[in-house]
Design goal:
Layout lengths: L1 E3 L3 H8 L3 H18 L3 E3 L2 H9 L8 E3 L14 H7 L7 E6 L9 H13 L3 E6 L5 H7 L6 E4 L4 H10 L2 E5 L12 H7 L4 E4 L5 H9 L2 E4 L4 H13 L1 H17 L3 H18 L4 E3 L5 E3 L1
Parallel strand pairs: 1-2, 2-3, 4-5, 4-7, 5-6, 7-8, 8-9
Antiparallel strand pairs: 10-11
Helix pairs in contact: 1-2, 4-7, 5-10, 8-11
C-alpha cells in the first residue's frame, strides 16, 4: 500500500530542479513503485489522474482520500488583543501566509506586493509566518519595506490564534507549479472561517480547491500587482469576504473532515485486506472485518 502526498516527478519538472535526467529517473521509480503496489491512496483527483495516466497504476487500485486538518477547532480568541500583541494595527488588512518558505512557494511575489503597497500607501500588511530554505533570502529582499513582517514558527495554540486574527490567508505558488502538491495549509486556513487568496495558475490543483470550496479568490501567480489587488478587493467587500470564509469552513467540515477521512480509510483497508485474503474476523453482527 502506498499513500501519495506529493508527486516528485511533477515537483522536479515544475520547479525546474534536478534536470531532465533526474526527472526521468524519478518517473521510473514512482511508476515502478505505484504500478507494483496492491493499493494506492491519492489525496486529490488530479493526483489520481497523473498516477494512472502517466505513472501506470491501475485506476481501480487508486483510491482518493482527502487530507484532513491536523488542528482542533479554532478557539475563541480576543482578536483585538492578539493583533496588538503581534503589532498589527486595527485598521490594517493583514494578509498572512503560513508555512514553508521554500522555492515552490515563490514568495518573492509577496515581497514585491508589499513593496507596491508601500509605494501606494495601501492599508495592508503582508505577514510571512514560518521558516524555510528561502527565508534568509526573502528577508534580505524585503529589507526597507514597511508593509511586510516575518514571524518565526509558533506553537500550535499561538499559530491558530495568529491565523484567526488575520483578515486574509494567502497561498502563493511559483508560476508553473500546477499539479505537484495540494497545499496542506488549506485545511488549516479553511478552519478559521477567513477568506483565502490564492496566487496560483488557473489550471492548477490549488485553483481547483478554491473553486470547489468557494472559500476565496484566485489571482495569477507571480504578479504582485494582482496579489495586492486581491487583498484590497477583499478589504473593500467585507460581506463577500465573510461569505467566502463561511463557505471554506463548511468545505473543511464536509469534505476535509477527519472523521469522514478516517472512516474512508478504514473501509478501504478492510476491503483491500479481504481482496488479498488477509486475516479477517466476524464482528458481533456477523460482518467481516480486518483483525
Amino acid at each position: 500500500m502506498v499513500w501519495v502526498q506529493d508527486i516528485y516527478t511533477l515537483g522536479i519538472t515544475e520547479t525546474g530542479t534536478g534536470g531532465s535526467r533526474t526527472a526521468a529517473a524519478m518517473s521510473k521509480i514512482e511508476s515502478w513503485t505505484l504500478s507494483k503496489s496492491s493499493g494506492v491512496v491519492a489525496i486529490h483527483p488530479r493526483f489520481q489522474d497523473f498516477i494512472v495516466n502517466r505513472l501506470g497504476a491501475q485506476r481501480d487500485s487508486v483510491e482518493i482520500i482527502r487530507n484532513w486538518t491536523h488542528l482542533p477547532p479554532v478557539p475563541v480568541i480576543d482578536r483585538a488583543a492578539e493583533r496588538e500583541r503581534l503589532g498589527w494595527g486595527p485598521n490594517e488588512t493583514i494578509a498572512l501566509h503560513a508555512g514553508n518558505q521554500g522555492q515552490k512557494q515563490g514568495l518573492e511575489n509577496v515581497v514585491e506586493a508589499a513593496r507596491l503597497a508601500d509605494a501606494e500607501g495601501a492599508p495592508v500588511r503582508f505577514v510571512l509566518l514560518g521558516d524555510g530554505n528561502q527565508r534568509t533570502r526573502l528577508a534580505a529582499l524585503a529589507r526597507g519595506i514597511e508593509r511586510i513582517q516575518f514571524i518565526d514558527p509558533l506553537p500550535d495554540d499561538e499559530y491558530q490564534a495568529a491565523l484567526a486574527s488575520a483578515d486574509v490567508l494567502l497561498v502563493n505558488e511559483l508560476p508553473g507549479v500546477a499539479g505537484m502538491a495540494v497545499p496542506s495549509k488549506l485545511t488549516s486556513y479553511f478552519s478559521t472561517g477567513l477568506p483565502v487568496l490564492a496566487a496560483t495558475d488557473a489550471d492548477g490543483v490549488t485553483a481547483g480547491e478554491i473553486v470547489a470550496s468557494g472559500g476565496g479568490m484566485r489571482v495569477d501567480a507571480g504578479v504582485p500587482k494582482e496579489l495586492l489587488g486581491g487583498v484590497l478587493a477583499l478589504r473593500e467587500d467585507p460581506e463577500a469576504a465573510a461569505a467566502a470564509g463561511e463557505r471554506g469552513l463548511r468545505y473543511r467540515t464536509d469534505v476535509l473532515g477527519q472523521d469522514a477521512a478516517i472512516e474512508h480509510f478504514e473501509r478501504w483497508l478492510i476491503a483491500a485486506s479481504l481482496r488479498e485474503g488477509g486475516p479477517a474476523r466476524h464482528d458481533r453482527n456477523g460482518a467481516h472485518a480486518k483483525l
